[in-house]
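Query structure, 372 tokens:
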């Protein structure tokens, strides 16, 4: 058995919505077609020549990567020039390529939340809020006796969450009217005759990212041939999303001990840092990848230390002058944490859907640096 590429893309995009990505980013399907059949997925941080060789050896039909193979539009598709050469190789082998990049950085539960969790941070908040999730009220009219069936179906897909409360709905009983016309197969009533039915008005709140799933499940669980429902945009504040995270250590540490903890928890051979080794740190700001552009926000939020990758000489000097320690755990080191989590997510969604899909984590180390 196999499934279509598009099904896997839909699962990923329910978590890391494409609209979250930065304008310059090159996400989504980069090679292949949505209708391609997939038996096995290989998940990786980067797409390299060795990674493609591994995908061929693993008989994978789809590569899901964090970093896109290219950012700028390709002026040609030549097999002798990089990066088009990699695309040509993938196409010849019938391997599709999909990337979830800055949308996975920003998404709730994405790279930065995974990184914060790895480091044991508590009281986690956004370092730089960039948007707020839209909320909708969905109202559906259900015949008496089926209201619980429809309610459970909607809530199973993420409807009805208010803060730490789930399954939040409201229902009121009333009378619905309709006249089945020619060509219909009504659940209640007879064609051509006005039907008055005892119905429940069922309403609940739904975040935008789950709206399509909730509507699909609602319609599937509803007994009517034509489902009557309304969707209202709300002014209520939804969940905020953004770049980076800031949180607290369970207990203050010296900067040296914090760096040691980062190295151990992320399994890194080396970690660079700037600042006084004996300085006490408690409040930690972070952003995976190379994100010194967010350093000023770490200053504003009162962080004692900022963790990221690709820190340049002068940026570290600027941080020292402002009294904030900087830990450079590398671009690769701060982002590879997402690979097994993304693989587990795809595997779980396939199991929930009753699909047979092999999901493997790449064994290729794509860190371009060696350490001596």
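Result returned for the query:
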């Amino acid at each position: 058995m196999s499934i279509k590429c598009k099904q896997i893309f839909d699962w990923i995009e329910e978590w890391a919505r494409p609209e979250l990505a930065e304008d310059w980013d090159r996400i989504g399907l980069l090679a292949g077609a949505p209708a391609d059949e997939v038996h096995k997925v290989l998940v990786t941080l980067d797409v390299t020549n060795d990674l493609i060789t591994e995908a061929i050896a693993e008989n994978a039909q789809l590569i899901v990567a964090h970093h896109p193979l290219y950012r700028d539009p390709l002026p040609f598709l030549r097999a002798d020039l990089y990066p088009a050469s990699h695309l040509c190789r993938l196409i010849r082998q019938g391997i599709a390529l999909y990337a979830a990049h800055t949308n996975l950085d920003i998404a709730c539960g994405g790279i930065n939340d995974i990184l914060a969790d790895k480091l044991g941070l508590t009281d986690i908040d956004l370092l730089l809020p960039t948007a707020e999730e839209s909320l909708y009220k969905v109202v559906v009219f259900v015949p008496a006796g089926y209201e619980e069936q429809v309610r459970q179906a909607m809530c199973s897909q993420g409807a009805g969450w208010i803060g730490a409360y789930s399954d939040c709905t409201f229902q009121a009983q009333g009378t619905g009217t309709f006249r089945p016309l020619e060509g219909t197969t009504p659940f209640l009533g007879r064609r051509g005759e006005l039907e008055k039915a005892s119905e429940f008005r069922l309403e609940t709140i739904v975040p935008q990212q789950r709206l399509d799933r909730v509507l699909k499940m609602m319609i599937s669980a509803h007994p009517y041939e034509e489902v009557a429902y309304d969707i209202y945009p709300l002014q209520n504040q939804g969940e905020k999303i953004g770049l980076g995270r800031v949180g607290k250590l369970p207990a203050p540490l010296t900067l040296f001990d914090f760096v040691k903890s980062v190295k151990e928890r992320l399994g890194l051979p080396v970690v660079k840092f700037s600042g006084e080794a004996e300085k006490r740190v408690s409040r930690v700001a972070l952003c995976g990848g190379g994100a010194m552009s967010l350093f000023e926000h770490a200053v504003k939020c009162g962080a004692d230390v900022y963790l990221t990758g690709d820190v340049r000489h002068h940026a570290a000097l600027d941080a020292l002058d402002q009294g904030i320690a900087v830990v450079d755990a590398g671009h690769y080191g701060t982002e590879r944490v997402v690979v097994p989590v993304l693989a587990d997510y795809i595997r779980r969604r396939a199991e929930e859907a009753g699909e047979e899909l092999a999901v493997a984590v790449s064994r290729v180390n794509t860190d371009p640096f060696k350490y001596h």
